[in-house]
Amino acid sequence: MQLRSALVTGAGRRIGREIAIALAQGGADVVLHAHTSSGDETRRAVQQHGRRAWVIRGDLSSRRNVQRIAREALEKTGKIDILINNAAVFFPTPISALTAQEWHTFRQTNISAPFFLSVLIGRQMYQQGQGKIIFLGDWSGRRPSRNFLPYCVSKAGVSALTQALAKAFAPHVQVNEVAPGPVLLPEDYGPEQQEELRTRTPLQRFGSPYDIARTVRFLVESGDFVTGASYVVDGGWLAQGHDGSGTSL
Length: 249
Ligand SMILES: NC(=O)c1ccc[n+]([C@@H]2O[C@H](COP(=O)([O-])OP(=O)(O)OC[C@H]3O[C@@H](n4cnc5c(N)ncnc54)[C@H](OP(=O)(O)O)[C@@H]3O)[C@@H](O)[C@H]2O)c1
Known about the structure:
Elements: E1 5-8, H1 14-25, E2 29-34, H2 40-48, E3 53-57, H3 63-77, E4 82-85, H4 100-128, E5 131-136, H5 149-168, E6 173-180, H6 191-199, H7 209-222, E7 230-233
């Protein structure tokens, strides 16, 4: 299947940047969504692979921005046939201090924004007769940890969205989830926290952004009979049955 134009949210840095570059290597032009990042560095990297790239910036916690980003992405490319819902918020929310605003932030950015973006772009994909939507979830959506409750619930919601939208957009659009384990830890994690998490990972290493990006690329390029599926790329965290409590997770 010839898929040529992608929209990647949160593409300015880290895993989103790696996914955008991997899609460009596979021959896709890429609309790069960014929020606080400029997106310029990823744009140059995509262009170095001979593909076109545009940056659209906006806070996904605003519904109006979600609509604008979908509209502008379609205007720039003419059509989107790959949507990667990568942007998300992640920070600890101990139950003793959890606020309604924090709950709202996780719900809006991690579930509502990818849902409405998928509906808006997915309808256009359905009409054109093909498309791939991929959500970035998290292994901890299946093993919620107590200090990250709204984040884990938002990622459990992403798994449910994956299955529901796979049915809603069948047979023309495949919708799947890639659920990473520890890949890039938050930038404020110290060496001791990092080492503790590494040694508790069954594969004894963190994943790399490339591990995630190449799974995304496999689903985009080769997953034509795969829909409603979740690919857990977590170094074994889910398999070991541990929820991360007592660790930095
Ligand atoms: N890193 C890991 O080890 C790991 C593990 C499990 C799951 N995941 C999932 O994999 C995905 C990528 O992980 P990551 O660590 O690369 O993510 P990240 O750096 O925490 O966030 C990705 C991007 O989301 C964007 N973003 C955050 N809040 C936003 C908002 N309100 N509006 C618009 N954009 C917003 C940011 O864009 P700007 O930089 O432009 O502000 C950021 O670059 C996420 O969905 C994450 O939950 C990651």
